[in-house]
Design brief:
The complex is a heterodimer of chains A (574) and B (577).
Chain A: H1 2-8, H2 15-47, H3 52-101, H4 104-110, H5 112-137, H6 139-154, H7 156-203, H8 205-210, H9 214-239, H10 242-266, H11 272-314, E1 332-339, E2 349-356, E3 361-366, H12 372-377, E4 387-392, E5 395-396, H13 402-407, E6 409-412, E7 421-422, H14 423-427, H15 436-445, H16 449-454, E8 461-462, H17 471-484, E9 489-493, H18 501-512, E10 518-523, H19 526-529, E11 534-539, E12 542-547, H20 549-555, H21 557-571
Parallel strand pairs in A: 3-10, 3-11, 6-9, 9-10
Antiparallel strand pairs in A: 1-2, 1-4, 4-5, 7-8, 11-12
Helix pairs in contact in A: 1-11, 2-3, 3-5, 5-7, 5-11, 6-7, 6-11, 7-9, 7-10, 7-11, 10-11, 15-17, 20-21
Chain B: H1 3-15, H2 18-47, H3 57-104, H4 109-114, H5 117-159, H6 161-170, H7 172-208, H8 210-215, H9 219-245, H10 247-271, H11 277-299, H12 301-318, E1 339-346, E2 355-362, E3 367-371, H13 378-385, E4 393-398, E5 401-402, H14 408-414, E6 415-418, E7 427-428, H15 429-433, H16 442-451, H17 455-460, E8 468-469, H18 477-491, E9 495-499, H19 507-521, E10 525-529, H20 533-537, E11 541-546, E12 549-554, H21 556-562, H22 565-574
Parallel strand pairs in B: 3-10, 3-11, 6-9, 9-10
Antiparallel strand pairs in B: 1-2, 1-4, 4-5, 7-8, 11-12
Classes of the chains: A alpha/beta (574), B alpha/beta (577).
Chain lengths: 574, 577
């Protein structure tokens, strides 16, 4: 509930609508109250005096009241809709940008699926909730208190029961909402789970079918789905109490009014008509509460979902910029760097130190899981080091604003990730204003000219995740994307693994011709790194050897083993 | 799909819960009857209080006792009814979701490939959710409203059947108005749902690719693009929500006209003595009661309409045609497979031809290597062999049986597959290795992991084989690939497909894995897409592909002797620079 308050700032721009919406709603209710009075006049003056003129006139008034009510109510609906939609639209935008600003570690921990539910399903629920609250929820207290006040004007003593009833009703309403919200929060997290399974099954459709695991996956989904159902039922049971409980409270109050009324009428302190009036006011409260009960699920859910959204917004996302005056002269330098992904977890990198001068090409090689990707991920500060320092262009990475740092570096990640759009939109991802000439040059260096050709030019379509391209085509486009940025540091994280040797070779030769760029090439293949100015060989997160191909071949056992494992096989018939 | 068609299909889902719905209807009847009775009892009680010293206190107490009992019964009936409605709704929702998911397991892969996963996810999650909301509200409102209508109508007919007839004939007017608005707003709701799907697809893509966005410092551009979609979504939502919310005021207006009309005819006939004033006043109060349910139903019309649109979107997934399947009779006992590709043509889209008139006969136990520049159709060939896609022309036979005639299950069980794209599901390492054989023992799993050289790194994970693999992060790309290989090692299939299976694995480990593969492939038909020349050289048949067709075919020696495209590729690979 407290977290929810933080969301209300986004209603700020809709103050006017938030006031006018309910106000028109009340106005409408007010006009509705006149109708019985007009009808009374029809009966008292029209029928009793046989005055047909008066009847026609009064019916005209009633229709007029109806028209006014219609106008008020449509106006109210409009303001409420504007406020609710605007509010959730604003949150959607803020939330999306907030998620984009989360650092890698935090985002890894939260998980993609739940972030998606929060910005879609949860937000929809919140929007429905806000709309209903503005439209109907504010009206209810007005009617309830209004009826109570009217009752007091009738008879103070007999109305004292209202003082007991209203707090009791409030307690019930809030207990149901506050008791239901945490349960609905669990419902939403069960929903996260089945969303995750669905997503996984869409991305892994081929593997699942190849292994004939459809049945097992369906079973897994059904398990998650039944958990969801049982949570929904539990939550439903709580909200189902609202209607009967309020019904009992209100009607027992009516019974009390009738009983005490009977005694007071008997003693002459109250008239029969006054008892009827009191009962009527109590009934009015009941009618209002019945309406409320139908909405309580929506409101309770909205509270739960709003909390989940507030939770994400409350996560401190960005990396802090630390002041550091240490400078070095190298382009990239690691000083005693260690990294572990989770606290007291195993170190993925352990005490790594090296320095790279501008324009050098650096190869990073090592067995699977030796920490190659971890090492290059520290350069654009995707993760923060656990110990030690990383310097880029002479300054500690922590002293840069994150964006400024990343502008210096173009990285081609291991997983070739493309987005729905065109070849152009993908390649210019890091440099929107690139000219065709620049784009074509980057594509030429990345050996991707045939990809462009195959897709019918720069505006050829690219499907989500680049699914309409082969693995190698995707990799070359991601390389072109990185080259186009013109960044001073280029990092290729095993990003040529799907390329055949011929293409890989041409690619490396083209890249080596770009001037003034410091290049990091992570690879499994000795052939990819052997011409680098410096090769870092990793083993189990530690440096096994740093040097040129020649040096390493002589003194670094790990490197020479990798080298010979490849060259024995592909080179033995030469 | 039209509104009506969707509703009709939804009714089918309600069929299974008929008994519960009937019970709910009975409970609604009880609730409504007692709710209508209580004001009458109150009236009787008030009648006992004539004035000072003239109150029948025992009479009042007797009535009050009856009211208390009626209230208790109503409350209990309401509570049970609520619970039944809840359980009916969520059972249907569960069923709909399960059916959608089950169908996703058997729709053609081209459906999955051509739809953004975010959009499909949105249908299964958000749309179903909105649908359940509407359904629950509908069930709760419609039943008690229907009962109230029946109850009050009975009272009105009892008082004056002529005016009752007027009311009966005029009130449906509000439905006409509601239907008019609903028809016009339907397209708005559809647009809203579609835009929502588009937004979700973008969200899905950008949250998944968040690291790229960060790496290229593109947060602003991506945010701006999202704002553009969001802007459209807001507009579509506002239109749908606002215009549909006119329904309620409009029907209420119509009903107040009805009320005025009843007042007018009633009053005029009262003037001429056709009806008593008392009767008119109770008549008016019932007319009021009678129109209330109409108002209430139209009050939730937004939710109902939205629910129908969302249901349509989910039904679209459920009704997606399934992959065609062969018949059980044609299932074969696979052993080391003979594959015959006869005059096969295939393309993903009609405009762009890919594979044309491909002929290929692979004998049992042959090792087939597929080489060629990236994007030449290697993966497509695998798609066809596994029948992820159906050939356009020609046929592929396995052991003499057209694969289109045999059960897919039978075909796919025959193959073991490792793809370049590593896919692991959320769960433990153990569960992932046992993916193709869920009843595998721990020993078998460890054995498979050892064969894939994954055992040593798994042992070092925080919880060993029970370590949960999270959605993102955790394992390196190469480690994931090792797990995919372990998964294959466990099932020991009749044939193998290795599509760049070791591309992210270091060469030392790869060398060992190749040996394990060699043992596994012993005497089995296998298809290997690779760029490591040593692997290719040892193949019995090498298919050299270029632009979707096989340009050369033969063993290493033959192809080298031929001096064509293969030789060119091979020499490039050997280039020591």
């Amino acid at each position: 509930m407290i977290d929810l308050k933080k969301l209300f700032v986004y209603l700020k721009n809709y103050k006017k609508e938030c006031v006018l919406g309910p106000a028109f709603k009340l106005l409408e209710a007010l006009f509705e109250l006149f109708v019985p009075l007009v009808m009374a006049s029809v009966i008292d003056r029209g029928i009793n005096n046989a005055d047909n003129m008066h009847i026609w006139k009064m019916i005209g008034v009633m229709i007029l009241l109806g028209v006014i009510g219609l106008v008020c109510s449509i106006t109210a609906q409009y303001f409420c809709a504007v406020a609710a939609v605007g509010f959730s639209g604003k949150i959607r935008s803020v939330l999306f940008k907030h998620i984009q600003s989360l650092d890698f570690k935090t985002a890894d921990k939260i998980g993609t699926s739940t972030l998606i539910t929060r910005i879609t399903s949860d937000l929809n629920q919140l929007q429905n909730g806000v709309n209903l609250v503005l439209r109907l929820f504010l009206r209810s207290p007005f009617i309830v208190f209004g009826a109570a006040i009217m009752a007091f004007t009738v008879d103070v003593k007999a109305s004292l029961i209202f003082l007991a009833t209203i707090p009791l009703l409030s307690v019930i309403v809030f207990a149901v909402i506050l008791g239901g919200a945490p349960v609905y929060k669990k419902v939403q997290s069960a929903l996260d789970n089945i969303l995750k399974i669905t997503r996984e099954n869409l991305t892994g459709a081929r593997v699942i079918r190849a292994f004939g695991a459809e049945g097992a996956e369906i079973e897994r989904f059904n398990r998650g789905n039944s958990t969801l159902k049982s949570k929904q039922l539990f939550a439903g049971r709580i909200t189902a109490l609202m209607n009967p409980l309020t019904y009992v409270v209100v009607n027992l109050s009516v019974v009390y009014i009738l009983y005490s009324g009977a005694i007071r009428v008997n003693t002459g302190n109250l008239t029969q008509g006054e008892v009827v009036a009191l009962v009527n006011y109590m009934s009015q409260i009941l009618i209002e509460l019945v309406k409320l009960a139908n909405l309580i699920i929506t409101v309770t859910k909205a509270v739960a979902c709003g909390n989940r959204i507030a939770d994400v917004l409350a996560i401190e996302g960005g990396m802090e910029t630390a002041h550091s005056t240490d400078t070095v002269t190298s382009a990239v330098e690691f000083k005693n760097v260690s990294l572990s992904y989770n606290e007291n977890g195993e170190k993925s990198l352990d005490n790594i130190s090296f320095a790279v001068t501008e324009g050098m090409s650096v190869g990073v090689i090592g067995v699977t899981g030796s920490g190659k990707s971890s090492l290059v991920n520290l350069i654009p500060r995707f993760y923060d080091v656990t110990e030690g320092e990383v310097f880029v262009m002479g300054k500690n990475v922590k002293s840069y604003p994150v964006k400024a740092l990343r502008k210096l570096i173009a990285i081609v990640p291991q997983k070739a990730q493309l987005f729905k759009g065109t070849i152009r939109s993908n390649v210019t991802f890091g440099k929107r204003d690139a000219t065709d000439e620049e784009i074509n040059r980057a594509i030429a260096i990345a050996q991707a000219e045939d990809v462009v050709l195959a897709k019918g030019g720069l505006d050829g379509e690219v499907a989500q995740m680049g699914r309409n391209l082969s693995g190698g085509q995707r990799q070359r486009l991601t390389i072109a994307r990185a080259i186009l940025t013109g960044a001073k540091i280029l990092v290729l994280d095993d990003s040529a693994s799907a390329l055949d040797y011929k293409t890989d070779f041409s690619l490396r030769r083209a890249i080596s011709k770009i001037e003034g760029v410091t290049t990091f090439i992570v690879s499994q293949r000795a052939s990819s790194v052997m011409n680098c100015d410096m090769i870092i060989t990793l083993e189990d997160g530690t440096v096994a050897g740093i040097g040129t191909h020649k040096e390493l071949l002589e003194k670094c056992e790990v490197y020479s083993e990798i080298y010979y494992s490849q060259y024995e096989r592909s080179g033995d018939n030469e | 799909m039209s509104n009506m068609a969707v509703v009709k299909k939804l009714l089918k889902y309600l069929k299974g819960s008929r008994r519960y719905l009937l019970l709910s209807l009975v409970l609604a009847a009880i609730t409504v009857a007692l709710t209508l009775l209580i004001p009458i009892l109150t009236g009787v009680a008030v009648d006992y209080m004539i004035g000072q010293g003239n109150v029948d206190i025992p009479g009042v107490v007797r009535i009050l006792l009856i009211i208390t009992v009626a209230v208790a019964v109503t409350a209990v009936a309401q509570w049970i009814m609520n619970i039944i409605n809840n359980s009916v709704t969520y059972s249907i929702v569960q069923k709909v979701r399960s059916e959608a998911f089950e169908n996703l397991q058997s729709v053609s892969l081209s459906y999955i490939d051509s739809h953004p996963s975010g959009d499909i996810v949105n249908r299964v999650i958000s749309d179903v959710d909105q649908f359940s909301e509407g359904l629950l509200m509908g069930l709760t409102q419609v039943f008690s409203s229907a009962m109230t209508i029946v109850g009050t109508l009975a009272f009105m007919v009892y008082i004056n059947w002529k005016i009752a007839l007027v009311v009966l004939l005029v009130t449906p007017l509000s439905f006409v108005v509601a239907a008019f608005i609903a028809k016009r707003t339907y397209s708005m709701f559809k647009l809203r749902s579609e835009t929502q799907g588009e937004a979700t697809a973008y969200i899905d893509e950008m949250i998944t690719g968040k690291n790229i966005v960060a790496a290229f410092s593109c947060e602003e551009a991506v945010g701006a693009r999202f704002d553009e979609i969001n802007e459209r979504l807001n507009k579509a939502t506002l239109d749908a929500v606002f215009y549909s919310s006119i329904t309620n005021p409009a029907t209420r207006f119509v009903n107040s006209l009805v009320y005025a009309l009843v007042g007018l005819t009633g009053a005029i006939s009262a003037v001429s003595g056709g009806i008593s004033v008392g009767a008119l006043s109770s008549f008016l109060s019932y007319a009021n009661q009678y129109t209330k349910p109409f108002n209430e139903i139209s009050g939730v019309v937004t939710e109902l309409q939205n629910a129908i649109v969302c249901a349509g979107r989910i039904l679209h997934v459920i009704e997606q045609p399934r992959e065609a399947d062969g018949s059980e009779e044609n299932s074969i006992d696979l052993d080391r497979g003979e594959v015959n590709i006869k005059d096969v043509s295939f393309s993903y889209s009609k405009e762009k031809k890919l594979i044309e008139h491909l002929n290929l006969k692979i004998k049992k136990g042959q090792r087939v290597a597929i080489v060629g520049p990236t994007g030449c159709g290697k993966t497509t060939l695998i798609n066809l062999l596994m029948r992820f896609y159906d050939v356009d022309k020609g046929e592929i036979c396995l052991e003499g049986v057209n694969i289109n005639h045999m059960p897919r299950r039978n075909l796919r069980e025959g193959y073991g597959m490792v793809l370049q794209e590593t896919w692991l599901r959320g769960g433990t390492v153990k569960e992932n290795i046992a993916f193709g054989k869920s009843d595998a023992t721990d020993e078998e799993i460890i054995e498979a992991a050892k064969k894939a050289y994954a055992h040593s790194f798994i042992k070092r994970l925080p919880k060993g084989y029970d370590t949960v693999i999270s959605e993102n992060g955790g394992l390196s790309q190469g480690q994931k690939q090792l797990l995919c290989i372990a998964r294959l090692m466990l099932i020991n299939p009749a044939m193998l497909i290795l599509d760049e299976a070791t591309s992210s694995i270091d060469t030392r480990t790869e060398l060992k894995i190749q040996k394990a593969f060699a043992t596994l492939m012993e005497g089995k038909t296998s298809f290997i897409v690779a760029h490591r020349l040593s692997t290719i050289r040892e193949a019995d048949v090498i298919l050299v592909m270029k632009d979707g067709s096989i340009v050369e075919m033969g063993n290493h020696e033959e192809l080298m002797a031929k001096g064509g495209f293969y030789k060119e590729l091979y020499n490039a690979g050997l280039n020591k620079e």
